[in-house]
């Protein structure tokens, strides 16, 4: 059996992975789905957040899980903005994990930030319209009342209704921090990209642009919205298991 460290995306917490985590645990795996430091915090806590700090946080969870499992393989997966954290952790300590999974996530090349990639994408007024600034721009928040059609339009309504009120303030700084990745470290790990064809937050053309920018990932296609852990949890669990080194 294996270990999985699951890193959530913007405005979410580790709890968003509950359905897929339960499936993986029923299959005998160990799953850790932490909430990143600073999420929903005070202005001071949010101001202290860096992408490097988040990367080290994820890498530490991978190291601890690998020790707990006596060296069994550990997969580090990130959803959406969580892809930035996955890449940063893998560059910092590639020995801490055995494979990477990007779930409709930011799989950006070295030298690019999330903010820079946003400039390369087409307009997305539905997504941009639900976001507003907080703490003088240190953070952003989402209009939960109108987020369902953008984040989870084909997910079970009861699950969506339970998740949206839990959305948190998102530290803004990691979006502008440029990734520094090398073939010898980040590039040494096998990667899987789980693309979601119905995604209205990071549309499919954006997902495929990232695949072109960072070639070499195995691609799994799900007919899912931006919340495949809600809309396609079994298929997502299959994709995560499929990322394990053979």
TrEMBL record:
SUPFAM superfamilies: alpha/beta-Hydrolases
Domain of life of the source: Bacteria
Biological process according to GO: jasmonic acid metabolic process; salicylic acid metabolic process
InterPro entries: AB_hydrolase_1, AB_hydrolase_fold, MES/HNL
Gene Ontology MF term list: methyl indole-3-acetate esterase activity; methyl jasmonate esterase activity; methyl salicylate esterase activity
Pfam families linked: Abhydrolase_6 (PF12697)
Domain AB hydrolase-1: 4-239
Identification of the protein by name: Pimeloyl-ACP methyl ester carboxylesterase
């Amino acid at each position: 059996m294996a270990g999985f460290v699951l890193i959530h995306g913007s405005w979410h917490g580790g709890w968003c992975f509950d359905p897929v985590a339960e499936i993986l645990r029923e299959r005998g795996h160990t799953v850790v789905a932490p909430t990143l430091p600073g999420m929903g915090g005070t202005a001071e806590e949010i101001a202290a957040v860096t992408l490097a700090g988040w990367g080290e946080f994820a890498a530490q969870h991978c190291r601890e899980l690998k020790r707990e499992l006596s060296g069994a393989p550990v997969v580090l997966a990130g959803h959406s903005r969580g892809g930035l954290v996955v890449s940063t952790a893998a560059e910092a300590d590639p020995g801490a994990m055995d494979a990477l999974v990007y779930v409709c996530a930011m799989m950006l090349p070295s030298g690019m930030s999330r903010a820079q990639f946003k400039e390369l994408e087409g307009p997305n007024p539905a997504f941009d319209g639900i976001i507003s600034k907080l703490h003088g721009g240190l953070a952003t928040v989402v209009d939960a009342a109108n987020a369902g059609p953008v984040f989870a339009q084909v997910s079970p309504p009861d699950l969506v209704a339970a998740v949206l009120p839990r959305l948190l303030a998102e530290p803004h700084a990691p979006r502008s921090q440029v990734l520094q990745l090398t073939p010898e470290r980040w590039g040494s790990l096998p990667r899987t990209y789980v693309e979601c064809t119905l995604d209205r937050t990071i549309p499919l053309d954006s997902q495929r642009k990232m695949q072109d920018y960072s070639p070499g990932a195995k691609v799994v296609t799900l007919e899912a919205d931006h919340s495949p852990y809600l809309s396609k949890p079994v298929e997502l669990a299959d994709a995560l298991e499929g990322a394990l080194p053979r």
